[in-house]
Write a sequence for this structure.
């Protein structure tokens, strides 16, 4: 996840309010999180393939791809976290992420795991970056709770590694935003109008959904506000979208295990998709947060993949 280039919460509120000013006429029904929907009927036979595992907490995490056995087409790409991965995670470092300099874009207190997709993959996705944020990050009162970021990268590891402030073109590449038709509805860069795009080292520029319930208090809609539990972002760099990102609290993920309602235990949330995509591939129309009792794993995934050109 990104760092806002400000310190006081009042400045954070002002920056976000300016960034979202064009959407100030949103009705209450539009700022609420989209209605949860079920994934629908899957193909009669599916195959699940896993990439190499990484040690996370006291357990492991691994990326996976679900394909339609008959056609070979991917229908879901995700991360499986076994139950033990939720235990023994690093604790916050005295909220270091909230004590950065006002112009800082560094992510000071997160733990990064790069997960390989299985051999077959799922174009355009190339790998998954799992980030554990033990103390959350700014703005205060919004995302400063323990949570995971799941970056599904549509760029290579080398391209990610090249997103560094030492690049003399760093701000130029951050300010090069994707074409209008490729921008998902309701998503904006969280920066005041005319301000430089806030690039994050090894990530890029984050795009936020103005309907997200956790942001409503920031720009004057307290009745529509809900504390952050799960949200969805896009990331861009050098004129194209480079990752899709579910961001979810540890508590919200773990609650899936004890949920009695199947629709809550396996939650599928629609996402806003652009009119056009930057490269051919299989793109999602929803993301999943689920607990699989058989494998004793939590699963976070982009789902309902469909081919787009």
């Amino acid at each position: 996840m990104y760092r806002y280039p400000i310190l006081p919460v009042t400045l954070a509120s002002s920056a976000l309010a300016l960034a979202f000013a064009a959407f100030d006429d949103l009705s209450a029904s539009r700022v609420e999180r989209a209605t949860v929907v079920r994934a629908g009927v899957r193909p009669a036979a599916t195959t699940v393939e896993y990439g190499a595992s990484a040690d996370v907490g006291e357990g492991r995490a691994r990326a996976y791809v679900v394909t339609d056995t008959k056609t070979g087409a991917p229908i879901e790409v995700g991360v499986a976290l076994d139950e033990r991965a939720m235990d023994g995670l690093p604790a916050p470092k005295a909220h270091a992420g909230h004590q950065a300099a006002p112009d800082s874009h560094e992510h000071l207190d997160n733990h990064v795991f790069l997960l390989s997709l299985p051999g077959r993959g799922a174009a355009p996705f190339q790998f998954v970056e799992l980030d554990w944020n033990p103390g959350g990050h700014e703005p205060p009162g919004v995302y400063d709770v323990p949570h995971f970021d799941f970056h599904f990268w549509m760029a290579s590891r080398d391209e990610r590694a090249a997103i560094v402030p030492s690049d003399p073109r760093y701000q130029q590449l951050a300010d090069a935003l994707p074409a209008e038709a490729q921008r998902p509805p309701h998503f904006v860069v969280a920066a005041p109008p005319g301000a430089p795009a806030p690039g994050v080292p090894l990530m890029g520029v984050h795009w936020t959904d103005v309907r997200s319930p956790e942001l409503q208090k920031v720009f004057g809609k307290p009745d529509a506000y809900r504390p952050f539990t799960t949200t969805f972002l896009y990331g861009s760099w050098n004129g194209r979208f480079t990752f899709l990102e579910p961001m979810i609290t540890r508590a919200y993920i773990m609650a899936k295990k004890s949920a009695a309602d199947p629709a809550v235990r396996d939650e599928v949330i629609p996402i806003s998709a652009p009119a056009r995509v930057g490269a051919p591939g299989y793109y999602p129309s929803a993301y999943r947060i689920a607990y699989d009792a058989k494998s004793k794993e939590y699963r976070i995934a982009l789902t309902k993949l469909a081919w787009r050109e």
